[in-house]
Amino acid sequence: RRTAGELMFRSYLKIAIKVLLRRKFFTVVSLFGISFTLVVLMGLGSRARLADSLMAHGWPRWMPAAVVLAASTARPHDVVGMHFFSPANVMKLLEVVRGEKTAPDVLATAMAVGKKIGKVAVVAGVCDGFIGNRMLSKRQQPAMQLLLEGATPAQIDKVHTDFGMPMGPFQMSDLAGLDIGWHRDPTRVDTIRDALCAAGRFGQKNGKGFYDYDEKRVGTPSAEALAIIEEFRATSNLPKREISEQEIVERTLYPMVNEGYKILEEGKAQRASDIDVVWIYRYGWPIYRGGSKF
Question: Catalytic residues, which ones?
Answer without folding.
Answer: 83
